[in-house]
Amino acid sequence: MRNKLNRFLQDLESTDRLDQIQILIVDLRSVLEIDHVVYHWISVDGDQYGFGTYSPAWAQRYQDQDYIRADPVVLGCFHRFHPVDWKRLDWSSKAARALRADSLSFGVGNQGFSIPIRGPNGQFALFTLSHTCSDAEWEAFMMKNQRDLIVISHYLNAKALQLQKGRTPDAVRPLSPREVDALTFLAMGYSRGQAADMLSISEHTLRAYIESAPHKLGALNTVHAVARALAEGLIVVGGAAKDAPGGWPGREAEPGVASGS
């Protein structure tokens, strides 16, 4: 297996066309003997781009239903920097349950594992594997391959950035001091009401700061804005975050959007 994965990296390094990446990902699925392998770049305006083995019907269904705004995998990985097993995400919302049931009917698999990837200027992508098997079988598979898959995910993202230059994300705009304060308190787990009290401003005023920050950062919503601000070093949250009321990070979800985790 290790030799085959090394061969994948060698082939990826020598690739000079985007269509070759799709072929390599299909080959990687065969090497891993799982249902699906997907590289998924999510742009700040909600556009989705990538390569993978999901059926065209499921890819179209996902876009038609605008599942990106309720997908616990996407929303959960926005504010994580480490790999995520899908079982550890929050699928309790009505929208998330509908997505899960729909994905199973399209053969996505009952097990999943996603690696968040962050590139230059706040670029965000996911490298995902999914399969249909028992929990024990999936755990054994991930214990055996996780380290190699993390390496592969970052090589894959680097190659995509190299070959698809037109998709290199724009640099973020600077935040005002009040926007920094607002996002920092949300990142620490405080509610909007608590953040407003601590800043000695009204919730209406706080909302203005929260709603302007995603626009400056090119984020889809507040959760994404917090994650991007952290990734860019615009806000810094220490160990106190995990002990803050409400937990980590930003418990208050956007209206109509699942919180992700």
Short note summarizing the structure:
With 261 residues, this protein is an alpha+beta fold.
Could you describe the 3D structure shown?
The protein is an alpha+beta fold and 261 residues long. Residues 239-261 have low confidence and may be disordered. It has 2 domains: 2-167, Transcription factor LuxR-like, autoinducer-binding domain (Beta-Lactamase, 2-Layer Sandwich); 177-243, Winged helix-like DNA-binding domain superfamily/Winged helix DNA-binding domain (Arc Repressor Mutant, subunit A). The protein contains 10 helices and 5 strands, in the order H-H-E-E-H-H-E-H-E-E-H-H-H-H-H. The chain has a 5-stranded antiparallel sheet with strand order 2-1-5-4-3. Helix 1 (2-14) packs antiparallel against helix 2, helix 7 (177-187) packs across helix 9 (203-217) and helix 8 packs across helix 9 (203-217). The longest helix is centred in the middle third of the chain and has 29 residues, at 135-163. It has helices spanning 2-14, 18-32, 56-64, 72-78, 94-105, 135-163, 177-187, 192-199, 203-217, 222-231, and strands at 36-42, 48-52, 84-85, 111-118, 124-131. Helix content is 49%, strand content 11%. The relative contact order is 0.14.
